[in-house]
Amino acid sequence: MTEKIDIVEMFLRDKLKEKEILRILEVPETHLNLYADKFGGRQILEKRYVVVRPKSASDVAKIFEVVKNFDYSVIPVGGATGALVSGGILPTKNKVVFIDTRSMNKILRFDPDSQTVTVQAGVKIAKLQAFLKVRGYWTPILPGSFRQATIGGAVCTNAISPFSTKYGRATSIVTALQIVFPNGKITEIGNKTSFDNSIMLKDFFLSSEGRLGILTEVTLKVYPFPESRKVAMFGFKNINSAISTIIELRNFGIQPETLMILEKERVIYEALQNVSLNSELNYAIFIFVSYSGSKGFVASLLNHTISLVKKRKGVKLPDKIAKNYWKNLTKGYALPMMRDVSNEELRVANLRYNSVRIGIPLHKLPIFLSYERKIRAKLDMLVYVGTSSYILLPQADSLCVSGCLIDDSSKIAVEQFKTWERKLLQKAKRIGGSLCAATGLGSMYNEFAVTEFGDSLESFNLIKRTLDPWKILK
């Protein structure tokens, strides 16, 4: 094993610079500290692998040229923030070359006329946001891990963000891409508009999670900063009233940029810093909204929303609660209570966070949450922190992020989490949903691949064999 790694390294060093070859994959410390390890990912990541940090598409082509002569797989890495969430970068065998894209970190072109920016795939989302901000623009790609996540990783997993209600998921604003295939060919797809006449190849490759080629450049639509942005949170006695309010908003043609349904636990954990508990928290379900645009337009939308909420006997919560939640939602904290590593209760209990992320039709959300409560009642080692549901309009689809704190050093606790996760995934599929709605399939969900894709898995494998006959890509 060691000898063969040395041979692969030797050939790679002949093609690339010495400093671009590593032996340890870098995973953000905050990610390792925050997330519970469901599948032994930390142990896998501690092993020594061949890790290559190319700086261009031509470097990636050189890597393929070497690797296809050996019985090795290639796994592309963005910010490595999904390692313990979906296992998207976790290898299932030892003979692996990681292509760590974080050295492809240049912002290449900004074109305000077409409202696009072209970046290398390894550019961190936080870096791009800072670049755009000083120019009066922004991008709605903002997953919870945006401080460490890369643009390439976000679009290859079709990440969701608070702004997906209005702007869609990450791939919705991608207009062009550059991809390197296993045969070394560098291909450009798309243009600077949203019109893609290349039989939707752009979307096909963006959603393949690096299984068909390595993404090296991305062109995105960007938007001018709005004049005004307002947020609000509303409480309801039951989820059906909340859903009816959302459907009425849609039918009136009101388009929030952010729309979420939150269980009480999420509000407690993520919105109540420096806010005393009061009667508003007697409500079971909450809606969070944000609107942006001109001041008068935003005020009008918010007033209309308040009227619809009152019609369903909902109540507007104090602004401080909504602003606290918005701050935590857009600052990249999975749970505010876990930001403070000195939190004694969590440290002693050795609790870490993880979640199940599932896409379902909005009108099925009451069924899903009721089922979740039923099975969780039998699992005594999980600390439930609630479900937050990102709502996409006008489609009326819901991405449910159901979270727990667990002691991942306890085999019993981990098995309980996996049981809870498995049952939720299976229920989602039975009610017309998707098992892996926000972080990709990943190695942790391999057992569900046939369930998720059905007969289409055969078609995908046929395409993969055509593009990757060497079986290089994961």
From TrEMBL:
Record-linked Pfam families: FAD-oxidase_C, FAD_binding_4
GO terms, biological process: lactate catabolic process
Top-rank lineage group of the source organism: Archaea
Keywords: FAD, Flavoprotein, Oxidoreductase, Transit peptide
EC number: 1.1.2.4
Ranges for domain FAD-binding PCMH-type: 44-225
PROSITE patterns, alphabetized: FAD_PCMH (PS51387)
InterPro entries: FAD-bd_oxidored_4_C, FAD-bd_PCMH, FAD-bd_PCMH-like_sf, FAD-bd_PCMH_sub2, FAD-linked_Oxase-like_C, Oxid_FAD_bind_N
GO molecular function: D-lactate dehydrogenase (cytochrome) activity; D-lactate dehydrogenase (NAD+) activity; FAD binding
Main EC class the enzyme belongs to: oxidoreductase
Known cofactor(s): FAD
Family classification: Belongs to the FAD-binding oxidoreductase/transferase type 4 family.
Name the record gives this protein: D-lactate dehydrogenase (cytochrome)
Organism: Candidatus Marsarchaeota G1 archaeon BE_D
